Amino acid sequence: MDTNKFIGEKIKAYREEQNLSIQELADKTNLAAEQIERIENNTDIPSLAPLIKIAKALGTRIGTFLDDQEKDGPVICRKEEAKETISFSNNAINSRRHMEYQSLSRSKANRHMEPFMIEIEPTDRNKEDFILSSHEGEEFIIVVEGSIEISYGKQTFILEKGDSIYYDSIVPHHVHSYKGMSAKILAVVYAPL
User: What whole-number distance in Å separates Cα of residue 22 and Cα of residue 20?
Assistant: First the structure.
């Protein structure tokens, strides 16, 4: 299954279920109607920030758009089952992709956290070129391989293998590879409804 296509279709279905127009959803999320339309049509793949805003506006959790089944009890994600990745753009306008997300909880019903194993590709962009994003909630990241750089408000942090950070995601932030090297992180995102 193409998970990225699945996300756009789910968003559209939830919006239509609530009898909301694209413009009404745009007004509730402070996103452009054109951006929502591109997301629903799978032209653009949203970053986590717009996805969280859309989920909140529709009164559901972000995982609703990532789920393919639901279980009430514990969910085990075997490493061979976590191969399917989700690509999120860090800027929905140009669909630049530099991260591949593996959802580690897709089948857990009513979850409040979203754990991801994320492969971060090297980039030749300067940190000043990245567009910072913000959304309600909190994030926890631990570096599994390589090194990353996190722009957080006016601060910059370098994290190496084994380092972790926990921050309020309402502060504008961006996570990217450090010095053109690839990296792998475990990230847990919490976004309130």
Answer: 7
In 3D space, the residue among 95, 120, 70, 79 whose CA is nearest the CA of residue 8 turns out to be 95
The whole-model pTM stands at 0.69
d(CA 90, CA 11): 19
Residue 171 near residue 152 (C-beta atoms within 8 A): yes
Q: Do 46 and 118 belong to one domain?
A: no
Is the separation of the CB atoms in 86 and 103 below 8 Å?
yes
For 106-128, write each residue's pLDDT tens digit: 777 777 888 989 999 887 766 66
Tokens describing residue 82: 């976590």
Indicate the helix (H) or strand (E) that contains 24: helix 22-29
35: three-class secondary structure by DSSP: helix
Structural domain includes residue 7: yes
